[in-house]
Amino acid sequence: MSFENTPYKDKKVISIGIVSELTGLTFRQIRYYEERKLIFPERTEKGTRKYSFSDIEKLVEIANKREDGVQTHEIRTEMKKEKEKPAEKSVLKEMLRGQFNAHFKNNHDQTS
């Protein structure tokens, strides 16, 4: 997906300083969550991290969970499951559509 087609919330244009101000997290905390593979900022040619509004929302969610005592590996596992849900829903929807079509095809064949 090109930058122009990227939803504004997902555009990686925000510096770590602004992210820190918006979230209340320190630079070190933000980098730690990156090290733990919870967020994935882009890097400029000079190595500067750039974040999106979606990253900021995710960081706030991570910080809240950490305050509640949730470990980073648990957060990562939960995030992975959340990411897989749309694919599972798609498969389920296709299965239901197939059953629905088969049901009506069988009923139509029996009445013909």
From TrEMBL:
| InterPro entries linked | DNA-bd_dom_put_sf, MerR-type_HTH_dom, MerR_fam
Q: Which Gene3D superfamilies match?
A: 1.10.1660.10
What keywords appear on the UniProt entry? DNA-binding, Repressor, Transcription, Transcription regulation
Record-linked Pfam families: MerR_1
Q: Which residues cross the membrane?
A: none
Give the domain of life. Bacteria
A GO molecular-function descriptor:
DNA binding
Domain HTH merR-type as annotated: residue spans: 13-81
Q: Write down what this protein is called.
A: DNA-binding transcriptional MerR regulator
